[in-house]
Amino acid sequence: MGLPVEELIRRVRRDREVEGLSIRALARKHRVGRKFVRRALASTIPHQRKTPERQAPVLGPFHEIIDSWLRQDASLPVKQRQTLVRMTARLREEHGCPAAYGAVRDYVGKRRRQLEAELFSVPAALPGFVPRFNVPGQDAEVDFGELFVRIGDQLVKCYLFVLRLCYSGFAIHRAYPSSSQEVFLDAHAHAFRVLGGVPAGQIRYDNLTPAVVSVVYRSRDRVENPRWKAFHEHHGLTVWYCQPGKSGAHEKGGVEGEIGYFRRTYLSPPPTVTDLDELNSMIDEWQERELHRHIGQRSRSIGQDFATEAKLLKPLPTEPFDTRLQLSCVTDRYAMINVRANRYSVPARFIGRRLRVMLGAEDLLIYHGVTEVARHRRLIARGEEKVELDHYLGILLGRPGALQGSRVLHHARAQGAFTSEHEAYWAKARKDLGDQDGTRALIHILLLHRHNHPADVQHGIRTALGLGTLSLDVIALETRKAAQAAGRAPTVTAPPGEHLQ
Predict the structure, then answer these.
(1) Average pLDDT of 37-41?
(2) Do 410 and 393 contact (CB within 8 A), yes or no?
(3) Is the pLDDT of residue 412 over 80?
(4) Coil, helix or strand for 173?
């Protein structure tokens, strides 16, 4: 790289004064032109070159025509204004002007701005931002950010919901498997519970699909999703939507920056967790740590400002809003229903029936009429399955051979529900009674889980095996004794989803 011009001038002048070199010798030594040497000796200020104004001899006579087109376009919708390609074609076809596209582009790019300023008296906008004055307890901003975490050995895409109070900068964070509407509503309900109230002013949003059905052209008005409208009216929220696209990103810059900051500070590299519950527990701890942080040059911490702001929030509604989404699903022949590209098992007696599903942000409840028949944790990645061994016991009584190698048995073993006691009982039953009868005996034992605590049943199995018997009556009796010793009712039906999985 060459020397800066100022340094080169300094060296030329020094060599002239110290060594007395001629202009020719200075030019040769420093590898510059003699004109540069003369200017360097005359002044220490670098010579400023003037950019020559390029002439457009071909396009010049047609400037007025182009100007008239630009004036006409200013009053037309943007989508029907003439493009540069169209202007170039019209100049050639209608006026015989052989100007190239580049010449038309350069002239129109400069002239269009000048004409708009003349026609609409619009002064040139300057870059920069205007500081905002935030009132305690009033405004907040909401957004989702993408997030990757490792669950086991799999990198899974999740979504980080953030609600940030504008005055204090206190933000509520929570990770979810998707950014769907039931998640959007549940995340708000969670944030308001943590805050202990609702912002009294505006809450600013992107035009998120869970909230906005369509944007009214050139307007701040939006056609809102009915459930979202019911939710924010129930909580008394004042919602405000930003301009679509990048042009509106600065209108909620606080939450945009918060997502990036929190992700870089606490979630990079992607954390390894067993499930989203563990991740959200970690996020809650980090959130508490943020209360001690000072934003910028503020003298007060986020927690100190939030203590002032919390007293000014509006109270929560007395009645909670059910954020779950109601769906209707038909059970297939594998006793499974399909919900949002994932499959969940239901009791086999409902094969072929239509069931009501209440899909929540983190779980789903399955009903037949008003009776809850199954409950599952919501799956994260697409294409996954969640099955419970108990749901298939009715089928397995008639087809005991299907248990060995089945997917439901694999899931039960992986989740720790099919324990070493069950394995030991099954091995002895098959040895003493044969494969089919031994497996049927095991299934009758598994049915005890519907009305007893798993630990009590396991105690009953251990006691029976210790006595050298496979008797269902003995196991049931010992299960009742274990329940009574633990202070549990011995024959209480376990809630759906809490028996053998």
Answers:
(1) 88
(2) no
(3) yes
(4) strand
